[in-house]
Amino acid sequence: MPTMREIRMAAVPAGLPQVADLTVVETPVPVPGPGEVLVRNRYFTVFAALRTLLGGVQGAPLPGLRPGDTLFGPAVGETVTGPRPGTLVRHMRGWREYALVPDAECDPIGDVLPDPIAHLAQGPTVYGALTRAAPVRPGDTVFVSGGAGAVGSMAGQLARLLGAARVVGSTGSAWKADRMTGLGYDAVVTRGAGPIAEQLAKAAPDGVDVFFDNVGGEELAAAIAAANRSARFALVGALSGQLAEHGTGTTAPAEIDSYQLILKQIAMTGYSAGGDTALRSEWDERFAQWSRAGRIEFPHVRVEGIEQAPAALRDVLTGRHFGAVVVALE
């Protein structure tokens, strides 16, 4: 019987997940039943929000994990069974070499983008947030917290493409700040280099019109202080809590001045692209156009082999890489 490998949760992490909290398991290749397609995965992403899922969060858009569960996440693979074997599809059952995917969850990707890996870009979340939850208008100043990660490295570029006049990002590393200035950012504030509010006031002297928040915490408080009247905030992540060294990563407390929200009439929206297929289609079309014109890129690090995935997750959670991290199974 043919076998495959997959990554399972071995233990509930005590603090940030370590390599030993995950395990590589060899298991039989599954046999599809009615309404299922067997997919041979080629690529999957390693994303920071897995820390929260490994903490057993409940009520989130994605279900929490328990010891013994196989990890999951965005993946691109080719169908082995079904009406058209060899079709490239994207789905949410990464972290395994072969996946059983319900017909309805197999999304053919076609050839709209030249590289299948590009379909793993976090563009839909960014595009949806900056066109729906906190729409960017021509001439806006946009502040992006966590601007060097998988999401933030796309957000600076998209804010610029959508008409922002000035884009400011935050990060925790000086070397990442240097790279961000080539991806749509005019200025970068660095955690640990002084109060974020003071740095942001200098980087955005005319105030902030749109805040794309991956982090929460001090960055959220600073954005409120710098916000212009009728500023729009889209909260898409809470890495200040999700990546906290201690705890479960399932909470992200922040001390903010709510009175300023009222005085400045700030609109604050928690946002998730979820299963918005219309948004995904719109994003694919615009991403393809911008890519062909050389106006956008997908910053990512490629890791070879499923056995490297547990270490790749540790590296993502400790901020080792710039942009997205993709595990290649070819």
Automatic annotation (TrEMBL):
InterPro entries: ADH-like_C, ADH_N_2, ER, GroES-like_sf, MDR_fam, NAD(P)-bd_dom_sf. CDD domains: PGDH (cd05288). One of its GO terms (molecular function) is oxidoreductase activity, acting on the CH-CH group of donors, NAD or NADP as acceptor. The keyword Transmembrane helix does not apply. Keywords: Oxidoreductase. Residues 15-327 form the Enoyl reductase (ER) domain. The keyword Glycoprotein does not apply. SMART domains: PKS_ER. This is Enoyl reductase (ER) domain-containing protein. It comes from Actinoplanes regularis.
